Amino acid sequence: xxxxxxxxxxxxxxxxxxxxxxxxxxxxxxxxxxxxxxxxxxxxxxxxxxxxxxxxxxxxxxxxxxxxxxxxxxxxxxxxxxxxxxxxxxxxxxxxxxxxxxxxxxxxx
Length: 109
Hints:
Layout: H1 4-13, E1 36-42, H2 51-61, E2 62-71, H3 75-81, H4 97-107
């Protein structure tokens, strides 16, 4: 996470010997290639200016036969649920299903 407050909270409330919380940008992480067997990015990609950098970084960091679990709101259905409130000001790019599948398949053939 880029928020030092969020990382401090996580470190305090979820201390486990096999778990580490670091501060950093998802698009450029200080870890070796193929360092992870599992990478998760839940409801993150839509907040990034350079969301393709997240996909490239996940691909770089993922071990062979690893898993990348990523989610984002579906643009069509999310817009319906936010009809009264309006657009989410924190979303930089929202994906429809076809676009999301296409972009994931480019990064993870």
